[in-house]
Each structure stands twice: as C-alpha cells, then as structure tokens.
Write a structure and sequence with these properties.
The complex is a heterodimer of chains A (153) and B (738).
Chain A (H helix, E strand, L loop, with lengths): L2 E6 L2 E6 L6 H8 L18 E4 L2 E4 L12 E3 L11 H9 L8 H14 L5 H8 L9 H15 L1
Parallel strand pairs in A: 1-5
Antiparallel strand pairs in A: 1-2, 3-4, 3-5
Helix pairs in contact in A: 2-5, 3-5
Chain B lengths: L3 E2 L9 E5 L5 E5 L25 E5 L5 E5 L8 H13 L6 E5 L1 E2 L14 H28 L7 E3 L2 E3 L5 E3 H8 L10 E2 L16 H6 L14 E6 L6 E7 L1 H4 L4 E7 L1 H9 L13 E6 L2 H8 L3 E6 L6 H13 L4 E6 L2 H7 L2 E9 L11 E6 L4 E5 L4 H12 L6 E5 L13 H13 L3 E4 L2 H6 L7 E10 L2 E12 L19 E8 L13 H19 L3 H10 L13 H15 L9 E9 L2 E12 L2 E12 L6 H21 L4 E2 L2 E2 L17 E6 L14 H16 L8 H4 L2 H5 L1
Parallel strand pairs in B: 5-6, 12-22, 20-21, 24-25, 28-31
Antiparallel strand pairs in B: 1-11, 2-3, 3-4, 4-5, 7-21, 8-9, 9-10, 12-15, 13-16, 14-15, 17-25, 18-23, 19-20, 19-22, 23-24, 26-27, 27-28, 29-30
Classes of the chains: A alpha+beta (153), B alpha+beta (738).
Bound molecules: FE2/S2 (inorganic) cluster (FES) (2 copies).
One FE2/S2 (inorganic) cluster binds next to loops of chain A.
C-alpha cells in the first residue's frame, strides 16, 4: 500500500493506506484522532468537517491521495488549550446537547469567521446550513457564532 | 440558616459508607431499592462496581466531591442535572463537584437512571435524600470532634460551623464521618433555600466535546480491536439464501467474512420473541476488517442472494391497511365514558376528520455501533445503549452465559430519541465477537442505520365529534397503528374527563417492519391530530379556541377519576401564560398564530406558532412555549432541551417521511431524507410556570405540541387545514395559496 505524508495540525504524519481512503477514516482509524465525526459519509451532514488550507471541507469526501502538501487542521488542533474564540463562545453559550455534531459545527464556524468578521444573521445561516444537528441546537449555534464573531472582530 | 423539611423517607437502607484507600469517604447508594444485606463497599476507587449500588459519591480529604454514576448521556443533560440534586443537599459549591461516568457491571441494576425524560422525576427525592444524608454525617462527625450537639452545627458550601463560630471543612471530617452510623430521616431543604437548583450549570462534558476528546461509542478503542460491517437484508421480508464473498475477502484490510444469525435465532426460540431480534430472523453477512472504511467498502462487494420470506410492504399497502382498520370494527376500547353513539345520533352536526402520519427513522447523529470482546471468562461490552440491564440479560441468554460474566460500559450517546432503547446491534456484535474471539466494534453506516431501523410506525387517527345546541356532546377517537397501540394513561389525557360522552378505540395490524419508541411515543403524532381537530371544532362552533379549552378544563376540576393525571389548574396556567407572552390577543400584521395546549410525559405545555408568508409560502418564524415542568433544576440545560424538542417537532412534522416499496425503505441517507437545518429552525421563546412541584423531564413533552401549533398557524395563513404529515409534501403551493 502507498505511503502518504500528511501535514495535520502542524505535524507531519505518514500513513500507509489505500489511495481512495477518505481523510475521515485516516484520522479516526489510523491516527486515533476521533474528534472528527462520521455522520453520513456523503457530504450531507458536516459532522466530519476539517480545514484544508483554511477552508472548511468535508473529510468524508476527501481521498488521502489528494492531500499531500496541504495543511489540514482538525478539531484537536484548532487551539492548544481549547480556547479558540469559537470554542470559548461554544462554552459560554453552552451549545451542545448530545454533542456529536459539535466538532463539525465548530470547524465550519471557525473557517467561516476567518473570512467574515462581521457576519449578518443571513451570512451565519448560509454558512452553517450544511451542518445538521439532530438535537436541533441551531439557535445556540447561531448565538455562539455571533458571540465568536464579536470576540474575533 | 435554611429550613429543613422533615422527611419520612429513610436513606439508611439505601446507602452505605466506608473509608477509601488514599483518604476520603465513599458513599454507595441505591436510588429505588434497598441495598442487599451483603452489599460490600469497595476498598479502592478502581474497584467500584455497580453490582450492589447505583452510584457512588466520594468526598476527598480536600473537600472535593466526585460522583460516579453509570448514567449515560443522550443529550438531555441528566448527567448534569441529576448530580446537581445531590450537590444541592450536600451543600457544596458546584465547582467542587466532578462527575465521572461509571461502568455498569450488574445483574440487579434496577432502573438505569437515564432512561428518558422520566429520570429527573424519579431521581428528585432519592438523590436529594442521599445528598442530605451525607451532609448530616459530616455534620455529626464535626459535632463529635467539637464535643457539641449536632443540632448546634450547620453546614453550608462545604463548611461546617458550630455555635461558637468555629469551622471545619467537609474534607477535615471525612475520616470520622465514614465510620459513623448512617442517620435516618434527614430533612430536606425548603425549595426557597436552594442555592444550586435553579441556577445555570453547563454540560459537564463541554470541554471534551468542544476539543474533540473521545467520548462516544464510535470513539472507543481497545488494543487489537478490529471492525465489523454487517450486511443485513435489503428489504423487510427478505431472508439470506446464500452469498459469495470471494471478491470481498480479497480486498485490502479484510480479515474474514462470516455469517451470523444462529445465536440470534437461538434467543428467539429460547426467550419470548420480541422486537429486538426481529432483525435477527434472517442471517446476516459480516465483514471483519482492520478499519471501519475497509469493512464498509468490502461489505458492498459481497454478492448475496435473498429470498422472500414474508410479505413485502409498500407505503400504499400500509395506508390501505390502516384505513381499513379505521373503517372496520376490530377495535379495543381504551376508555369509554357515556354513550358516544347516542350523542352522535342526537347531534345537530357532526365533524369527522382523519389524520395521517408516515414512518420515521430516529437518525441519531452517531450511527448505531457497539464494542464487544468475549473470552471464556468474560464478556466485555462498551457503547451507547439506554437499556443496559435488559441488554446484558439478552446477551447472556443468547450465548448461554452467566450474566455475571458481563461487564457493560456505557459511553456518551450521540443522540437517542428512543433508538438506543433497543439492543439489536449489541446482540449482533456479541454474536460476532463470540465467533471470532477478538475485540471488535460493529459500526453501522448511515445507510445501514436508516434502512434497518426500529421506526416510529405510520399511524392514522380518525376523530369524530357531535355538536348539539352549540356544545360538544360526543367525542370519539380511533387509532389505527402498526404493531402496537397507545398505552398507559394516554387515552386519559385531555380532553378525557371534560366530556360526558367520550371514547378511545385502538386497532393495529402486525407488520414485519421493526417499530418502536420514537421521542414522545404516540403523543408525537396524536397531539397534532387532536389539537388540529379541537381547533377546527372551535371554528365550527364559532368560539375562540383558547376559550374552548378553558371551558372544557372547568369540567375536569375536582374530578375523582384517578386515571386523569393531568391537572386542569396547571393546564390553565400554561394556557394563560402562553396567551400573554405570545401576543395572541394582539396579533401583528402579517403574522398568523396557531395555539395549542397539551399534556404528556407528566408535563403541561402550551405553544403558539407564528407563521408568515414569504413569497406566498408559509414560513415558521417563532414558537412561544409556556411550560410547567415543576422545579427547573438547570435552566440553561432545560432551555436547550425545550428548544431542541420544539424544533425537532417542527422539523419532523414539516419534512419527516420514510416510505417503503416492496419492503425497502426509500430513503437511506440525508440526500434523500430531509432533516430540519438552521435556516428552517424557528426562534423558540420559553416561559416557565414557576412553582416548587417535583420536576418533570423535558426531553419529550415539548415535541408533540409543536407540529400541532404549526399546522394551526398554517391554516390561519393560508386557509387550508393540514391532515397529513409531513406538511411540506402535503401543502401543494398553488392549491394552498390559491
Ligand atoms: S460525514 Fe462527512 S458530511 Fe456527513
Ligand atoms: S448536539 Fe446532538 S447532533 Fe448536534
């Protein structure tokens, strides 16, 4: 099996996997980084969201072979101490219910706010529309994104 | 000093104490049964077992409190609010409390303490009693140290004070306290003295959730663990004939491909057959691989031959069956007051309507999964399940093993909604692990999860009312359902008790599609049917729908009918509150409001939906909620649950729809099954009726009224009555807006 060198959260990692293995499963099963979640496997729910070169991307649809030379960031590497403004906002607002979707929500929100420090309500809704929360914590997600925007702005 | 309310309830029999290695006091307690005479306290924290106790409290010599409880978290915040009850009466600062999820290792673990929205209701007294008893022991120990009477000492926020003003921290006296006798009949605080109950407490796992730490079943790993992907019948009614795994076996990472089903069938013949093993009626093919992805991929390469074992149902067939049941006369009567037939015969006017709902999958965000490792000595099971005790019992019966061999650890759950009450997936992984004797985790794909579920079945209601001289003289509700009917006291919910001639009849037919509990079973749809009907009835009678409810409630007051568990007074309170807060009496231009009031899961609740027309399309903007759930233990968590329940109710009544063709579910992932997303989620504004009554759960009761309120508001906006869910599929725009 081929070997791939990946740059994840600033560390270089090499994995020996089939070329079509999705990044999601490389992270979860090969590298023991289970913060990135599986929800649908077809790009519909956003649970598996990571940043690739700063852009929020569905890791279930990314084949490992496409990723050499790219900077990958996962929830584990969003901040050293769990104190990224988005994480802080999530804590302040007490967003999670079951919590399963939240890593993906946080990764979508943090990439979005990097490029839009002054989002309107519609901007937030558009940015977060791709992330399902089955527990329907949507109102708190929206509030937390607003709070985080203030912190970052 | 706070007032103590005397209590007749002795904690002594339910609670044991001991010193613990390394310093500190350990309290083991049971919630609902006395401790066994031989129940032994562990000598070390690493030895906590839940054979004899539901949970443990450790008070360290530095005053820190750790609560070890095997209660799983399914998003209802019970892992936060239940420890708050202990900490309140123990009277320690919440910052000193740490909650650790314990393992379940049991043959007599009576009622798991997180089995749905009832947990808080059942835990309310015993958890506070436990905290109060522990506090009293610490006070007694301090009194002995000082040589004073315990009644001269008070305890607050982890500190004991005597009449002379001297103080001792809880940690200073744990050693002595552990050796004292457990006091009886310790008083509880007057609710007005609560310091912690009623304040906001964050989700106890928040730091782990936001930083991606392993918490869920899907995150669990063990040394040498491999993965299983299970190929189940592609349609309900199919059974495995044969399979060819040549290609799958040659794929990377694949360790083996096996067939299971023999053990499940053994359980079927061995024990009372029930839903959990329905799916076990066919054998299944299991791919065992080094990683999840490799297992899932190889599963798709298996060539299986299936034969038709039982009739394969389509949605059309189900609709026909249910309508036939409603038209027929094979009913069981669940409640009968007076004579509805006579009332209808004498009526000036009859209103009769039929309401229809589809199948719904649970769609927990974390798909079903479970870990098992089975040796001759031990069965180790780890994962998200809401029913650990029956599950352990069934695994033992299936494998002809002693239940004492089983150690079951519960992880945090990525959603439950009723699905994880059923242990079909645990039985599967146990059969697999038993065959291969390796640590293994079964992981369902989203497609597996959605197409081999335990669904909320389609249900139809027909409601008929008779009107004479401008009054409702008869009310007859018929239910046609699949596999099961409404149960317990549901037939006695409002408007039962308010009408002289009232009858509830139920009928069902048996399907081979697995069905079961889904968030707020039965009421999740019944509420829409009844509340929409009452609204239409008010229209026919030309009376205000709010006033109609209030008038009916008058007749329930002082009832001696013990089956009526809802309270007319509490219902009035939520109605008045929602009317006031929603602005129902002063509607804004262009805002159409739908009102309903409901009682279920021990909670009284009224909701008003605000709908506006955007591009001639009804859009749900806001739901105002008035709820009486007794004491609100953790408002921050309670509001989250209410918002979640309401939006879930709106989402499923608008979009939720699983149809069948030839036994095959027609949706298998989120591209073909619509869940509500952020843009469609209305604002939720919640108002609590303030009282000091025992708390009731909130995971379920907020959902049922939401769909009802929305349908009534849509009717106001468009003039069209909705009788069928999901609304989005049944409100043909043109026809609707006309
Ligand atoms: S798992 Fe990737 S979008 Fe759902
Ligand atoms: S918090 Fe449960 S799915 Fe979002």
């Amino acid at each position: 099996m081929p070997t791939y060198n990946l740059m994840i959260n600033g560390n270089s990692q090499s994995v020996e996997v089939a070329s079509d293995t999705p990044l999601l499963w490389v992270l979860r099963d090969h590298l023991d980084m289970v913060g990135t979640k599986y929800g649908c496997g077809i790009g519909q729910c956003g649970s598996c969201t990571v940043h690739v070169d700063g852009t929020a991307t569905r890791s279930c649809l990314l084949q490992v072979s496409q990723l050499e030379g790219k900077a990958i960031k996962t929830i584990e590497g969003l901040s050293e101490d769990g104190l990224h403004p988005v994480q802080e906002a999530w804590k302040e607002v007490d967003v999670p219910q079951c919590g399963y979707c939240q890593a993906g929500q946080i990764m979508t929100a943090s990439a979005f706010l990097e490029n839009n420090q002054n989002p309107t309500e519609d901007d937030i809704k558009n940015a977060m529309q791709g992330n399902i929360c089955r527990c329907a914590s949507y109102k708190r997600i929206e509030e937390a994104v607003k709070t985080a925007a203030e912190k970052m702005g | 000093m706070s007032t103590l309310i005397p209590s007749n309830f002795s904690r002594r029999a339910f609670l044991r104490t001991s010193s613990i290695a390394g310093g500190g006091m350990l309290i083991g307690f049971n919630l609902f049964t006395a401790c066994k005479p031989k129940a032994e306290m562990p000598i070390d924290i690493s030895q906590l077992n839940y054979n004899d106790f539901n949970a443990f409290i450790k008070i360290s010599d530095d005053g820190m409190v750790t609560i070890f409880a095997p209660n799983p978290e399914i998003g209802q915040g019970v892992k936060t609010s239940m420890p708050m009850l202990i900490a309140e009466e123990l009277d320690v600062p919440w910052e000193h409390v740490n909650v650790v999820q314990g393992k379940l290792d049991t043959e007599n673990y009576t009622r798991q303490i997180a089995g749905g929205s009832q947990s808080i209701r059942f835990g309310w007294e015993p958890l506070r009693q436990t905290g109060a008893t522990a506090r009293q022991m610490l006070v007694n120990a301090a009194a002995v140290r000082w040589g004073v009477d315990a009644s001269e000492c008070t305890a607050s926020q982890g500190v004991i004070t005597n009449a002379a003003g001297e103080t001792l921290g809880y940690g200073d006296v744990v050693k002595e306290a552990a050796t004292l006798e457990v006091p009886e009949n310790v008083g509880l605080k007057d609710p007005k003295d609560f310091k912690l109950i009623g304040t906001d407490a964050q989700n106890v796992d928040i730091d782990k959730i936001i930083s991606g730490k392993p918490l869920f079943g899907l995150d669990y790993k063990a040394e040498g663990m491999v993965y299983a992907s299970v190929l189940r019948p592609p349609a309900f009614g199919k059974t495995l004939e044969s399979f060819d795994a040549t290609e799958a076996k040659a794929m990377p990472g694949v360790i083996d491909v096996i067939q299971i089903g023999e053990k499940a069938n053994h359980l079927l013949t061995n024990k009372e057959p029930n839903w959990t093993v329905q799916l076990g009626k066919s054998d299944k093919v299991v791919v065992i691989a080094k990683t999840t992805w490799e297992a899932m991929k190889a599963k798709n390469a298996i060539k299986a031959v299936w034969s038709d074992a039982s009739p394969m149902e389509s949605t059309e067939f189900q609709d026909r069956q249910l309508l036939d049941l409603l038209d027929g006369n094979k009913f069981n009567t669940m409640r009968k007051d007076g004579n509805v037939k006579k009332a209808f015969a004498e009526a000036d006017e009859i209103l009769e309507r039929t309401y229809e709902s589809p199948f719904l999958p649970h769609n927990c965000m974390e798909p079903m999964n479970f870990y098992a490792n089975i040796t001759d000595e031990k069965i180790h099971l780890v994962g998200p399940i809401q029913t650990p005790e029956p599950t352990a019992g069934m695994v033992a019966a299936m494998l002809d093993r002693d239940v004492a061999d089983i150690e079951l650890e519960m992880t945090r759950m990525g959603g439950g909604f009723g699905r994880r009450l059923y242990c079909d997936f645990v039985l599967e992984v146990a059969e697999i692990a038993n065959a291969i004797r390796k640590p293994i985790k079964m992981v369902s794909s989203r497609e597996d999860d959605m197409t081999t579920g335990v669904y909320r079945p389609a249900i139809k209601y027909r409601i008929k009312a008779g009107i004479k001289d401008g009054k409702i003289t008869g009310y007859h509700l018929k239910e046609a359902a699949i596999n099961d009917n409404m149960y317990g006291l549901i037939p006695n919910f409002f408007p039962a008790g308010a009408l002289e001639n009232y009858q509830v009849d139920v009928a069902n037919y048996k399907s081979n599609i697995t069905t079961g509990a889904w968030r707020a079973p039965f009421t999740n749809f019944l509420s829409f049917a009844e509340q929409s009907f009452l609204d239409e009835l008010a229209e026919v009678l030309d009376i205000d729908p709010v006033q109609m409810r209030l008038d009916l409630l008058q007749k329930v007051k002082g009832t001696e009918d013990e089956r009526i568990e809802y309270s007319a007074e509490r219902m009035e309170d939520v109605i008045n509150l929602v009317v006031e807060k929603s602005g129902l009496r002063n509607p804004k231009d262009g805002v159409y409001q739908g009102f309903c009031a409901y009682y279920c899961h021990n909670t009284h609740i009224a909701e008003v939906a605000d709908v506006v027309l955007e591009n001639n399309q009804p859009v749900v903007k806001k739901i105002t909620v008035a709820v009486d759930c007794g004491v609100v233990v953790n408002p921050l968590g309670a509001l989250n649950q209410i918002e979640g329940g309401v939006i879930d109710g709106v989402g499923h009544s608008m979009y939720g729809n699983l149809t069948f063709e030839d036994g095959k579910p027609q949706s298998d992932n989120y591209n073909s099954y619509r869940l509500i997303r952020m843009k469609e989620a209305p604002k939720v504004e919640t108002h609590f009726v303030k009282n000091t009554l025992s708390p009731t759960g909130l995971g379920e009761p907020t959902l049922p009224p939401a769909g009802a309120a929305v349908s009534i508001a849509i009717n106001k906006a468009t003039g069209n009555r909705l009788y069928k869910q999901p609304f989005a599929d049944n409100m043909n725009k043109k026809e609707l807006i006309g």
